[in-house]
Structures are given as structure tokens and as C-alpha cells.
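Q: Predict the bound structure with adenosine-5'-triphosphate.
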Amino acid sequence: MSTHASVTRMEKIVSLCKRRGFIFQSSEIYGGLNGFWDYGPLGAELKRNVKELWWKSMTRMRDDIVGLEATIIMHPKVWKASGHVDTFSDPMSTCRACKKLVRSDQVWEMLETVPWADAIRAAAPEGKPDAAALLKWATGKGQRIAPNLALVQQPAPILARLAERAAEAEASVHTLFQLLCTVSAEGPLATPCPHCGGELTEPRPFNLMFKTYVGPAATEEDVAYLRPETAQAIFVQFKNVVETSRVKVPFGICQIGKAFRNEVTPRNFTFRSREFEQMELEFFIKPDEVVEVQTGHLAKLAPGEVPSTPQPDWGWELWHKYWVEERFRWYESVGLKRSSLEEYWQKPDELAHYARATVDILYKFPFGTQELEGIAARGNFDLTQHQTHSGKSMEYFDQEAAVKYVPHVIEPSAGVDRLILALLCEAFEEEEVTDEKGNKEVRTILRFSPRVAPIKVGIFPLLKNKPPLVAKALEIQNLLRPLMNVFYDDSGAIGRRYRRQDEAGTPFCVTVDFETIGENGPENEGTVTLRKRDAMTQERVRIADLPALLLAQIS
Ligand code: ATP
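A: Predicted complex:
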């Protein structure tokens, strides 16, 4: 549940994102488009760094994964085979009164944060409804904030019904809300609209894929979809990759790219968007039977043991656990603390029918602990589906085992935008500091890991009207800019310039002062001060040492 403090924290993060150019509303000058976001100059750098680190860790740092870059629009049969045409839907309800659409499975979660629902909860302390308080609210403020709630529209009969069914209302706060929102005295209880308190219709499935037409005729025959995930292209190109690269099962194919979902209720800033990016890996493994025949057994883990170095006797369970661990390690390497993450094993009734196990990596966002990535053991469902629908064999001939099979797969699937949001939430901090004149002020800092920080180093001449200082600072800019993203700033007091970089999450600042140019004697000539964002310490370092010193921190 979101508390006031976490709402405020989130508001501050959203406002910093706009103010400093991390994230803007898409098409803002036209009033924005719900569920679409743009990354500004700092956000674009941050996102690029994150994708680059993921790509590098998956492909260049390993021998067993290769990359792919496929199109967003694919043959519509892909989505028939994958099941998306028939089943990629969310339950949706419409409010009978205000006509707004809501995702039926998110209604109660939304009701946790709306003011009118707070008022009802306040009028029913410990689940015991106080009729007088409810009546007062319904004939007063309720008229404004929940105008379509049955209680507000006809308080007397609704309160009478509540009195009759008090035991049910006390037993479940959901029933209390339902009793207060349902207009008719007969029939089943409705669920309230979070926006206005009106009755919601029964849930019905709503397909999340965006439709478009390929070619000018635009008939039903030309319908195509914007991909709702990047993964399917990997399955579809599986054979081509096997035939053209020197990969052998177990191996993976990974891809970063845009995905589109017509989410019913985009919310929580960029967390649930309609256009977003994914970083997905399909890691193909041998079926357990093949491993068993080849090695004579399947490896088992001792209690508490985590799989670290891949072995030939690993079955799907160990591979799955291995990828869960790998992904946790990677998140830590980009600056998310393990204590900010949670591991959630989906329960058997939550699993997709083909999935053998799915682990969600959750991040503790200010608005709740929510999914960053899902790691699913999907058997050989996807390849088999494409084999059936395309009529092309997806079998792989395993030379070592001398058998043919359709490989099984482990799929770590992450959202770039959700990770960016998590990194911003993790990094955001405010602290009170006292300036040189003794004034207290709030210092806003983004404590990004230097590896992801959009700007790696700020470069400042102490004074902008001293040409030798400026010339030296520009020289340092030219020295460092081919190696990393730098920011030259000569305006305002040096303290202000540090603060601006703190807010941008810049881990280092270099200042060129009179010592640098030898005005205070020769011993510090050719050195600058290097200020570290987190320790707020300053040390003198030689300009010649800067490239190696900084590169060691950011790579
Ligand atoms: P959710 O249950 O939150 O809708 P999901 O389980 O449908 O997510 P997947 O289909 O497993 O998500 O997609 C993999 C990843 O893609 C998610 O973990 C998430 O990081 C990202 N993702 C999915 N939908 C969105 C979205 N609407 N906006 C931003 N990122 C998304």
C-alpha cells in the first residue's frame, strides 16, 4: 500500500525527471498521450548505458550467447502460433456511470490509493461501518469525490441494506465497498469504479496487441500487429541462427527492442507504458532426458547451494536457478541493492500452462513491490508451436548426443523502462546540507552507479573569465570526451555547479584552479581537484592520470 511519504517521494522523482531532462511526457505540447513517455538528454544517456551493459554482459562477455535485431512488425501468423492472438488479453471492466475503462484485476489495488475509498475506510474503523459518519460523508464531500457511488446517490436504502448485511460487511472490506456501490437491491453485488464510485461491468477480455495494416489496401487480410514482446522473433529465427553461427545447445539468443501493449490502465509513471523496451534472452537447453542419457544422471543442488558455473549434467531446474542468480547479480552490478529486490516464485496456479517455473524479480518501488523481470522455464512450447504452425522443423541435431530434439528454453525477460525507473528510485536522495555561509539547503542527489550514470564527469574551470583556466578545462574535456560522456560547465559558483551535477547523478567533477596552471608554484601544476559525489571529498590528481582513473570506475 502506498503511504503518503512514498507518494511524495514518487512525486519528487517524477518532477526531478522532468526538471532535469530524464523523462518527458510524449507529445506534451498537445496534452500528452497516456502511456507514452520520451527520454530527454539525461534519460537517453542513462537508457543507452543500461542497454549497453546488458548487451555486453550477455554477448561479448560470454561465449554462449549471440544477439539478434528483428523487426517490430512480423507475419501475423507468428502471433497466432505464440498464442497472443487468442489469449494475450487482460480482463477489462467499464464503469456504467462515467464510462471509464479499468483493468478488472487492478481495481482493489487502485482503491487503496483513491481519496473517496480512504474516506469510506475511515468511516468503518476496523471494518465496523459507522452509519452516521457514512451518511454525513455521502451528503457532503462524497457528492464531489464519488458522485456515482450508490451510497451517495441514495443514502437511505443503501445504509438500510448495510445494516441488514452488517456481518458480511464487517467480515470483508471488499464486500463493504460492494454493498455501498451496488444500486439494485437484487442480483449480485457490483464492484465500484475507482474513479467515481459507479458500478463496473463484469470483466471481459481485452486483447492488448496494437493492430495496424501492412500495405495500402488496409483490408482485414492486411492486419498485422506491433510486437507485444521481442521474444517471438528469437524463436522464429532460431533455425537461421543455428545454421549461420557456431552455436551449440546450450546457448542463447538475446535481443533488445521496442514492444507495444495497449495497456488498459497505464500508470505509475513509466512503470506500465504502452510503448516500452525489453531486453530478452532465450537460452536453449537440452531436454532433461537427453542430459540424463548423456551424463547418466541429472545434477542436484545441495540445500542452499546456488548454481554458478554451467555443467553438462544440468537439467532445466538448475539452468533456471542459474539464470535467476545471474540476473540478480547483474542488477546489483548496475546499482540496485539486493535488499531493494525480491524474488517471487509463481505458484502453480499462477503459472502459464506451458511454464514449468517462473521467478519474478521484483523491485521495491515507492508505489509498491513490483515486477522488473520474469525468468520462465518454458519447456519447448514456443519452438513446438512455431513448428506446428509454420510446418518447418525446429529440431536441432545434437552431435554430441547424436539425437534430434526441439530444445527447451529458459527465458529471462526484462523491461528497460522499468529498470530505468528502478534506478532512478534507488538513486534518489535528499539531504540537508549547510553552505559556506551557514545556510541550510536541501541537496538532491542521484546516487547512480558510475557505470550507468548519464554524465560521468563534470569539468569546470574555477573562473570563466580567466582564459588560462578555461583553456585547460577545455583541454581536459577533449582528453576525456572520446572515452566517456563529459559535461563542461563554467557558469555560476562552483558549489552550484557541483549541486547541478549531484542532481544529474554525475559521480565525478574535475575543477581546474590556479594550482593547475602553476600560479601557486610548480608542485601542483598539471593537477586538478577530483570531487566525488558520494563522499563529497576532493583530492588532487594529475591530469595525465584522469583517463585511467575514471575508466576504472565506470567500466
Ligand atoms: P505485468 O504483469 O506487469 O503486466 P508481464 O508479466 O505481462 O508484466 P512480461 O510479459 O513477462 O510482463 O514482460 C517482461 C517484462 O517486460 C516485464 O517484467 C516488464 O519489465 C516489461 N514490461 C511488460 N509490460 C510492460 C509495460 N506495459 N510497460 C513497461 N514494461 C513492461
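A: The pocket of adenosine-5'-triphosphate is lined by residues 229, 261, 263, 272-273, 276, 278, 371-374, 413-415, 417-418 (CB under 6 Å).
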